Amino acid sequence: MLDTKAWAERAVEWAAKDPDGFLATVISALTPLFLARAVLSWKLAKMTEARGKEQKKTQKRQENTAKTKRLKKD
């Protein structure tokens, strides 16, 4: 079983003894996660934008179809 209290104490001790090394390690460990988050956010934005355009296109098509049906009835 993991002893989280001991692990946290070691981490705090390490941060107190070598703050530059600690920060460099934390930043280098988190950088790939930040990059992945940025890429996934960008992809999600593109997908949302494409879905919105497709919905507008479909709505316009339906409006035009309904308009032509009304004109044919008249």
From TrEMBL:
<dbReference type="InterPro" id="IPR027877">
    <property type="entry name" value="Smim15"/>
</dbReference>
<keyword id="KW-0472">Membrane</keyword>
<keyword id="KW-0812">Transmembrane</keyword>
<feature type="region of interest" description="Disordered">
    <location>
        <begin position="50"/>
        <end position="74"/>
    </location>
</feature>
<dbReference type="Pfam" id="PF15086">
    <property type="entry name" value="UPF0542"/>
</dbReference>
<dbReference type="GO" id="GO:0016020">
    <property type="term" value="C:membrane"/>
</dbReference>
<keyword id="KW-1133">Transmembrane helix</keyword>
<feature type="compositionally biased region" description="Basic and acidic residues">
    <location>
        <begin position="50"/>
        <end position="66"/>
    </location>
</feature>
<keyword id="KW-0175">Coiled coil</keyword>
<protein>
    <recommendedName>
        <fullName>Small integral membrane protein 15</fullName>
    </recommendedName>
</protein>
<comment type="similarity">
    <text>Belongs to the SMIM15 family.</text>
</comment>
<feature type="transmembrane region" description="Helical">
    <location>
        <begin position="22"/>
        <end position="40"/>
    </location>
</feature>
